[in-house]
Amino acid sequence: MTRFRTDKSLEHAERIMLVSVLLSDSYTGSNESRERQFQAACAEAAELVRATGGDLVCTETAKRDKAHTALFVGTGKAEELADLVAQNQIELVVFNHELSPTQERNLEKVLQCRVLDRVGLILAIFAQRAQSQEGKLQVELAQLSHLSSRLVRGYKHLQSQKGGIGLKGPGETQLETDRRLIQTKITQLRRQLEQVKKQRETRRKARLSGSLKTFAIVGYTNAGKSTLFNRLSKADVLAKDQLFATLDTTARRLYLSPEASVILTDTVGFVQDLPHKLVSAFSATLEETALADVLLHIVDAADPELERKIQDVNDVLAEIKADKIPQMIVYNKIDLLPEAEQNSGSLKTVGFSVAKNNVGETVAVRVSAVSGAGLDDLRAAMIEWA
């Protein structure tokens, strides 16, 4: 049974089915609210699948009180999915949930094709997007850690690859050997990451030697963070209309005025229910956020789910202990709002009065990173923080 590899996570030609299940404890609120949140999560999952470059052939949804222990979706639904897999020549089924190793293995037996859970999907995207040495090391470490919990009897032996362990399931006679191989590789990667971390710490200290304030751009993926970073810093960071277009951290010195300059950093975006193990795996990258003086929290002003996404970002910030850092909310993409709303009070800018302490007051500005509208207001606000 083929597994995604560390060097290439998903083949672009793969025919993919996406499965999402609404569990009774998935969301809070009224039935209408829960359904709306579920549909938004399904749409986001579809974007994640498309971000891999795969061919999303069909999507399936289901409702259950709780996840089935062995098959997550239950026997009847699994058999129904198996029929759809055969009819549509599906090569990969993605579940928008975190599956246990047993559930994943059982589903692959029933569906007769590869199965990837939400963690594996996000890791697949990360593997495609990582550009820096640190990013690639973090992705490979996270992939191997995820795989190690899925080494069970009944799989084929790990495929040997030059330059890294091939991610194919091991066979029974090789199980312990393959576990040791993966553990050895994990240890090597952690040592390499520690070296990279020390080098990055040295560079960070050099940047901060002039006592410049550091502003970290954070926000939900695809909120326009890299576009805004490029607009402000005149850099050339990859900015695309897709989820997780940016994975690596970039830092630039930003001259706000003849008297004021700051360090501006851009990093990976967040998503709903970002698996804890991914937050842990990318702690080195996210550390740039946790050590910032001010957070520029970028929000897509035209997104109907913006309030939920703001909370999702704040949840991750709390997990990396960055929730006490002063935030400035930047409502981006106002050019996509209906003209009547672009200058309305629906997203009124809060005053720029700031308490100079560890918490500080939240300020909000409305901008368009594409048109440049509101950027002077943003720079003025940043000068007050600097």
Automatic annotation (TrEMBL):
The keyword Magnesium applies. Pfam families: GTP-bdg_M, GTP-bdg_N, MMR_HSR1. GTPase that associates with the 50S ribosomal subunit and may have a role during protein synthesis or ribosome biogenesis. Mg(2+) binds at S226, T246. Keywords: Coiled coil, Cytoplasm, GTP-binding, Magnesium, Metal-binding, Nucleotide-binding. It is found in: Cytoplasm. Its cofactor is Mg(2+). GO terms for cellular component: cytoplasm. Transmembrane segments: none annotated. Monomer. Associates with the 50S ribosomal subunit. This is GTPase HflX. Its main location: cytoplasm. It comes from the Bacteria. CDD domains: HflX. One of its GO terms (molecular function) is ribosome binding. Residues 179-206 form a coiled coil. Belongs to the TRAFAC class OBG-HflX-like GTPase superfamily. HflX GTPase family. GTP binds at residues 219-226, 244-248, 266-269, 332-335. Residues 213-386 form the Hflx-type G domain. InterPro entries: G_HFLX_dom (IPR030394), GTP-bd (IPR006073), GTP-bd_M (IPR032305), GTPase_HflX (IPR016496), GTPase_HflX_N (IPR025121), GTPase_HflX_N_sf (IPR042108), P-loop_NTPase (IPR027417).
